[in-house]
Fold this sequence. Notes:
The structure holds 2 protein chains of 2 kinds. Chain A is α+β, with helices and mostly antiparallel strands.
Amino acid sequence: xxxRTKLLxxxxxxxxxxxxxxxGAISLWTRLTFERMDLDRRQTALRQFQKDLSTRGxxxxxxxxxxxxxxxxxxxxxxxxxxxxxxxxLLNDARTLAETQSLDFxxxxxPDLSILSSAHWPARFGYKNDWAGAENGRxxxxxxxxxxxxxEGSAAALAAVRTVNAGEKKIFVLGAERLNPSFLASIGxxxxxxxxxxxSDQEVFDANGPLAQGGRLAQLASxxxxxxxxxxxxxxxxxxxxxxxxxxxxxxxxxxxxxxxxFIGTSLREQIRLQRSILWTGLLVGASxxxxxxxxxxxxxxxxxxxxKLLAEGAKAVAGGDLNAQVTISPGDEIGDLAESFxxxxxQLSEQRARAIQAERVAAWRELARRLAHELKNPLFPLQITVxxxxxxxxxxxxxxEEVFEQCTSTLLAELGNLRGIVDRFSDxxxxxxxxxxxxxxxxxxxxxxxxxxxxxxxxxTAPIELALQLSPDPLPVQLDQEQMGRAxxxxxxxxxxxxxxxxxxxxxxxRAGDSVSLEVADSGQGLTQEECERLFTPYYTTKRxxxxxxxxxxxxxxxxxxxxxxxxxxxxxxxxxxxTLPAGRIE
Amino acid sequence: xxxxxxxxxxxxxxxxxxxxxxxxxxxxxxxxAVVRNxxxxxIAVEPAEAAAKEQLTGQxxxxxxxxxxxxxxxPWLATSWIHDTARKKWVFTARPKVQFQNGVVWAPPGGxxxxxxxxxIEQILRDLARPKNAVMIRGSDGALVGTGPFKVSQLEPNxxxxxxxxxxxWGGRPFLDAIEIRMGRPLREQALDFEMGRADITEIPxxxxxxxxxxxxxxxxxxxxxxxxxxFDSTATPSQREAVALSLDRGALQGVLxxxxxxASGALAPQWLSGYAFIFPxxxxxxxxxxxxxxxxxxxxxxxxxxxxxxxxxxxxxxNAAEAGLTLRNTTGSPGLRLIRLRVTQPxxxxxxxxxxxxxxxxxxxxxxxxxxxxxxEGFRVIPIVHLPASYLVSPRVRQWNPAVRWxxxxxxxxxxxx
Lengths: 588, 419
């Protein structure tokens, strides 16, 4: 992953994370705020409802009181006082009183609660009233909630009872106002809330009328009905989340019994919409931020990474050997300073390399001169001695001159031959031909080269060398010049033999390593120092007394000509291991 | 002094003139029932329609004989009848100068109508008094034409009928020019129309009669013509039927709910018509009712919810049944039991039972009235509850109208019409 990509990624993630965090925080804060506000509103509405209910109860009681003090009620009480009251005369009286006082339910009852006249159920005369809220035979003067039996079932109502005295006897006037949508509408809910009254699963309504989905309140209503305690829940009226409504339920108690459950609800529509709006805004801002971040990031990273990229390219060029590489970056910041330093560094490197090359050349020439002097010195000294002996023999022993002459000329010729051999080796190294590559199998090349030394290995009885061939079981096809590679291999084997004058183990191993093949030649000889390892492939460098220093240079040249690499690993006393890596060829 | 005398004479003349019948005017009547046609031979099954239809056809068509309010046959288009012993037939003398409403003179051959019938004459006369035996002809337009005091001027089936005065009526032209009857009017609409002066005669629930009279309204009532009864279908068991019958507190129902109007009864036909209604038991036996109702399933209870009297009575019946342990669920159109009104349309027991039988479960149609009624009531398939009069709100301007079994609209007049 490039630096630029990383920079872009970091910028985008930072923007996205920030927006997501801000959106989440705002959304959470909004939800908590709304919930707190809703709870406040519901509790306020509940208090208001209870207050209104109490007020309405007093109003109902006042109307029942008016009915009780009316002439009609007095007449009913007088009639009821008779030994055999004529109920047919009273049949419509309750209805008249109810209509006059705008009461939904009204019963005129005897002290034993038998009905004299009923407004809402005229046919019920003579039967016992069972909604007077009497406890232990005592009727409370306070308004109360009750369920009034009707032909259709029972209805929840806000009721009150008043007494009509006629002589010694008395009757009761029971009046009630039905808890229905109109009742809820007249009480009214606080802004933003609505009141829902649950009386049974089939009778659920708010101020607008019956609720079609009233059954959804059944579970909560049942809980409140059984516990007799308030409860909270969120009700979702349909598949849409926006239909959700937070509900606070409060039981309507009458004589310790729950006659209904009041729900104060606040719609979550606005909250959900706002949260959704925040979410969408967050997403929009986030997307815009990401886009802007990308554009800004692209621009910024372009500005930031371009000089870095130029520096990287420059460094790569230097690594590739181009020490003249220069980076053109406007100065003025850290990157500019870095570029200047880089340019200065490459200039210095270039100068140092030139000096090193020059020094190396001088060193090489010196080494060559030393080697040549050394190589030439060896045959020259015998030549000089031989010539001096020849002159001495001519002067001192002319009778033996012929014999000496013959011996000396033979020696001269031999040493001249040595000189020529030295010259030829130098000449060969200078004239190393280009390899003629062809398909070959590395194991076969190894076997061919090793075969030449088998006799020598066998001849070394005092210091035996054990050959350990660890060749790959699979064929290792390569494209190579078998003669040159064989010569290189021979050089390595010879080197190894020279490194083991006291005998040892010569291990030759071949293997495939991906797209290349490897060849290891290791000895168990005296080993090399680190410095020796570093200089080992330098021409004319040798650690042997009689070496020309060209063997390994030739090996490196051959390997290099085959697009391969050679390296050596060694430590003093632990032998040396030469590793040649060559491109693998195709099996044909 | 002479001047004062003259003024007194003028005032007295005006007073007398105010009480003397006037000709003209249109009497407006509203009823809940609907009548599909005015063909007297087409007997309506539904009791309310049958009753309304007989009242209307009775103004248009006449029979040879009519039954008076006591059910006694009286001469009408036939002025007399004798038995021709030799020829074994009855000979009815036709009333002279009778014209049909289209001007055709009714002239039976020889001025008599002969009838070979070996039944007793009382039975023949009752039969002749029935509307289906009215004297009528087909007019040029194919419509039926009668001889009654009014002719059909306009008929809108199920909605309204306008009857116009028959100018050449043999009994003299009726005082009213026309009678407009609006049908299918709910009681509430009738009350409103009456209060607004848009109707002269409207029906009023019997439970409202007392209040209406207390308000000063004129309420006229017929004899006990209506019978409220419970009719069971086959889904109710005999025990359930009997439990309902024994749970009924007819006394409280009639004495309180129906404001003491009518008579609680266990018979279909009222006492004045049959003379034996008192025989049928109407007592309550709640203990036995509870025993019979033990373990009974609930029953569906239906009635005309637009009828406030039926509604009140049904509510009380349901309460009585509930006291016995039987639940009656108020439903419409479901099987179970129904609360219905039956209506006497003729002071004729046999005809009445025939009419009742149309609305009741099948039963034998032979035997005396008592036997037939006993057959209808057998097994508590029908439970009569109470006999009630029909009640009408009548405008003060309506004179000489009597809501008898048969309305006598030919004598009715309106004072502000022309004298």
